[in-house]
Design brief:
alpha/beta, 2,3-Dihydroxybiphenyl 1,2-Dioxygenase, domain 1, four-stranded mixed β-sheet, 8 strands, globular
């Protein structure tokens, strides 16, 4: 019996799939494939399914975490890529969190909250 897990993906809600696809492309994500109902979105070894499904309460309470090698580089990238002006999004400042992560927040066009962070050294 082989019970190895190959991958686990979240289904991320999207109010307007075309706008959300453009948002993630602007951030540098690859759209592997897409149709009218869903898009397979990837960056590095991480991926998720962006779905044309929107319930405001669900989207506002949906959170994604992306662990990166250098959170400050990612923050500079987000500020420089034009996503804030183009999509009127909110971006927080990187901060060291008590749970051992340095991260910042980013809100997508459907109100999904992203936490982009790196693991802090264990003390």
């Amino acid at each position: 019996m082989n019970l190895n897990t190959v991958e686990i993906k979240a289904f991320v809600p999207s109010r307007d799939l075309a706008v959300s696809v453009a948002f993630y492309r602007t951030l540098g994500f690859e759209i592997v494939w897409a149709n009218d109902a869903m898009a397979y979105v990837r960056h590095g070894s991480g991926s998720f399914l962006l779905q044309h499904f929107y319930v405001p309460e669900h989207a506002r309470n949906f959170m994604m975490h992306m662990q990166v090698e250098n959170v400050d580089d990612w923050h500079r990238h987000v500020l420089a890529c034009g996503v804030i002006a183009k999509f009127a999004t909110q971006v927080g400042q990187p901060e060291d969190r008590p749970w051992g992560i340095r991260d910042f927040t980013l809100v997508d066009p459907s109100s999904v909250l992203w936490r982009v962070g790196e693991q802090l050294p264990l003390t």
